[in-house]
Structure formats: C-alpha cells, structure tokens
Amino acid sequence: MDKISVTVAMPAFNAAKFITESVESVLDQKFDSFELIIIDDGSSDGTLDKLTRYASDPRVRIECNPTNLGSGISRNQILELARGEYLLPCDADDILFPGALEKLSCFLHDNPDVGVVYGDILCLETKAGSLGEKPSIVGRDASQVWDLFENAVNHGGSMMRSDLLRKVGGYAVGCVPDDWGLFLKLAEITKIHYLKGHVYYLWRRHASSQSRRFTNREEVDLMIRETIERRKKQADLHPPPSNAGA
Q1: What is the pLDDT of residue 175?
Q2: Is CB count within 10 Å lower at the N or C end of the chain?
Q3: pLDDT tens for residues 139-167?
C-alpha cells in the first residue's frame, strides 16, 4: 500500500479474550487504504500470542511495550507511527461495524472544515461473563453540551485528522480519561461533528474495560482549570470585534 488514508489505532492491555474479534472487525472492512497499528501495552494474559497470526498481514503493525505504560501513552505511540491522513481509535475489546472506515473517511474528505466526526455507538454491558443491562445506543451532540462538564464525544469509532491530533500534542496522559483531554483541545481549533443515528461501533463495558478504571478527581479538576486558562488566553489574544460606532 503506497498511500494510507486511515490508521486504526488499537492499544491492547490484557485483551486476549476479545482481541481476535476486534482485529477481525477491522480487517473485514471493505476499504483498501488503511493500516492497523496495535500496541500490546505489557499484557500478561497472552494477548501478544493472539496477535502472532497477524504478523504477516501487510495491513497490520504490531509493537510491544515491555511494561504497562497506560492507554494515553500507547495511543500517542500509535500516533507517532501513524501514516494515515485520518486516525480511528478502536479498543482491543470492541468491534468496528462494517462500512465505518469508508463512510467516516468520506465524510471528512467532503467536509474539510471538520476535524473530528463521530456517530452513535452500541453499548454492550457484561457482568461475570453474561449480559448485564439491556444493550443501548449511546450518542449525544457535543455542540449541545458544555465540554468542561462532560465529554459527549464517542471516542471509539470516531475519526480524526491526524495532523490536528499532532498539533494539539496528542492524548492526555495519566488517570484522566485520555480522550476527554484530547477533545477539549481539538474543540478549540476545529469543528467536531456528530452523525446522529449512524452506528459504527460496538463498545463493550465490563469489569476490566478502560471505562471502568479509576479516574483521579484531582487530575480532572486540574485538566479543567488548565483548559479554562488556555481558553482565556486565546480569547485575550483574539477578542471579538467591537460594535462601537455601529
């Protein structure tokens, strides 16, 4: 492949139970111009063994961290390696639905003023190996939510322009949800568009999924304070035009 349109980013930590299904959902996409970069982030459950079967696939690149560095660092490592114009995150326990790469990349191609596009996701919650709550569709328009209070952008299955991710310094690193910090910065330099009713991604929520991991409230508060200060400086540098004399 000479030209890569989309990089699918898949950090993996102790995902042996699900990762084969996740990888296959990406490789089954009817889309020619993509690469899948997987970083095994110090797994101890045989995740890397599950990936050996894909080592000869030219669409797949597999890298390893000797110890667990965290999802934010792993995602930034993938961003450094990415050759795609666009980047789509797909976690190692989730599923990318057919048509996702083609439809989302076409949208960004046709809408150059949009830097991030995302749709609804199907949320599947499991407890002790069985279905927990009834599967649900999750999605909200980020433009209708104050992003300092909550992150309304569905990270999994979203698609972003890689150059903009690099421009804002990539993902946040630490206990804070790494995608929230990213979208706060992206919202300051580009449009984020919600495709209501378009479902491209299955999100598994289970005891070991990233969405259930501990979030440090102090770090969240620090992230919000830094965002407010950053946006205040931007407003001071670029004040709105005066209506004097109108």
Answers
A1: 65
A2: C
A3: 999 999 888 778 899 999 999 999 999 99
Residues 6+ apart with CB under 8 A from 96: 8, 22, 25, 26, 29, 88, 90, 157, 200, 201, 202
Q: Which domains does the chain have, with CATH numbers?
A: 6-237 (3.90.550.10)
Q: What is the pTM of this model?
A: 0.88
According to DSSP, the β-strands at 95-96 and 191-205 are antiparallel
Least confident piece of the model among 8-12, 22-26, 153-157, 204-208: 204-208
The two tokens of residue 194 are: 């919600």
In whole angstroms, give the CA distance from residue 151 to residue 186: 12
Instruction: Compute the distance between CA of residue 31 and CA of residue 33 in angstroms, rounded to an integer.
Output: 6
Amino acid at 236: D
Return the closest-CA partner of residue 204 out of 160, 157, 159. 157
SS3 55: coil
